[in-house]
Amino acid sequence: MPTIRTTGHFTFADWKEVPVGPEDTHPRLAHATVTNAFTGGIEAESTTCDYAISYLTGTTGSFAGMELVRGRVDGREGTFVLEERGRFDPDGTVHCSFEVAEGSGTGELAGLRGTGEFTYRHGETKVPYTFAYGLE
User: Fold this and answer.
1) What is the pLDDT of residues 96-123, one digit of tens each?
2) Are 129 and 10 in contact (CB under 8 A)?
3) Which one, of 38, 35, 28, 87, lies nearest residue 63 by Cα?
4) pTM above 0.90, yes or no
5) What is the Cα–Cα distance from 39 to 42, expressed in whole angstroms?
6) What is the DSSP string of 37-58?
7) For residues 29 and 39, what is the distance between their CA atoms, to the nearest angstrom?
């Protein structure tokens, strides 16, 4: 399976965060439901993403989530799930790596495998990503 590398950007279309447990303590937990729009190698008008967030302080922490992507990868249409893990720093920078959930590809994306990453800097409206993938 040859590896293909692609890039693009995504934007946050919606972010809804709800605290889990007391809000005035650290560490604390939160749950976020997010909608993203991808352009570039991954094209998706509206994804569904669900995060569990751990705030270690008021400005640092980590998260894990799953994102359902319906769209295209380099023109091939289908659906797949991204498993995401990351951290955020005191300056608002978010570092995230993601991997295609094994067996989640459908349509022309059946057999999709891949990994990627992004770094979001506070205030950006478009977030660049990289994605390396293959199809079985």
Assistant:
1) 999 999 999 999 999 999 999 999 998 8
2) yes
3) 87
4) yes
5) 6
6) EEEESEEBS--EEEEEEEESSS
7) 31
What the block records as the tokens of 72 is 């295209």
Amino acid at the residue 81: V
Q: Identify the bridge partners of residue 86 per DSSP, sorted by sequence position.
A: 63, 96
Span 56-97, pLDDT tens digits? 998 999 999 999 999 999 999 999 999 999 999 999 999 999
Tell me whether the omega of the peptide bond preceding residue 27 falls within 30 degrees of 0, making it cis.
Answer: yes
Q: Give CA–CA dist 121/124, Å, rounded.
A: 6
Place of tokens 């007391």: 22
Rounded to whole angstroms, how far apart are CA atoms 77 and 107? 6
Degrees to nearest 5, angle at CA 102 with 108 and 62: 120
